[in-house]
Amino acid sequence: MNINVAPQASNMVLLNKSFGQDGSVKFLWGMPDEVKSVESVYFTINGKPAACISTQIGCTVGCVFCETGKQKVLGNLSAGEIVRQIAAVNDDRRAADPGFKKLDTAIVAGMGEPLLNIDALKEAAYTMLEDEMVEHVTVTTSGILPAFEKLKESPFSILSISLHATDNDTRTRLIPINKKYPIEDLLATARDLRESTDMPIIMNYLMFDGVNDSDADLERLIGLLDPSLYRVKLKQWNTIDETELTSSPLERFKTFEAGLKGEGFDVSIDYSMGVELDAGCGQLRSRVREMRHARKETA
Ligand code: SF4
Q: β-strand 75-76 against 105-108: which pairing, if any?
């Protein structure tokens, strides 16, 4: 399949590019209508080049720890606009380093909830793979359960699920869509996908101090998850403005890691990439908008 990324997506212009000390590069792309903008982030995982890309502008899921969730929802990106982000990052990296060949992985975890734009995303993923722009496409979701059926026939090599809590009250507080798709339904649907497709599933667990990092949380997490079905990633959080949340201390990460390992889980701690770049999804877009706003006010 080869979709047409022109004309609308080919007119994407680079509005901002920033470099992190960890080697990450963050891009803010402007869309042809001059209103919409989206982010992509380049970084390496285990030495392999990857890019985190966006599927929507704004997001209706409204996670309290996410900058994108606070932004006005301007809609879905087209398949072409999703593909174009990968093409543009590949072009940029080749220009920076003539030895650079291509990205290894497209990580669909930037701005937006990917499963709310699943049809365009699947079309984009097939194109990226068939056109050899990347080797793998992975996707991260907050758990939009009706779309899981469409994952059964899809090109994704890994699905990551943002679990982030072990009880429904806490998860609904963090991820309001949990009210509609509670933990027990999420886990039953994930199990069905895992067993019917063999698609590797990672349970992401952002750790917040005093919110979801107690010994009781660890015990519940072990009770909820089956180590034969899921890997677990304990994730450090990129702080955003106007929130009372703080990331858990390192000691809690270590306690969770040891507890899960002791129960046979494949578990890792994922320290935040690009923290100094505002690399949490939606953060660069918000910063640039604030800067433009400030410039207008001082003009
Ligand atoms: S974390 Fe993802 S799903 Fe949640 S509000 Fe942000 S972009 Fe949307």
A: unpaired
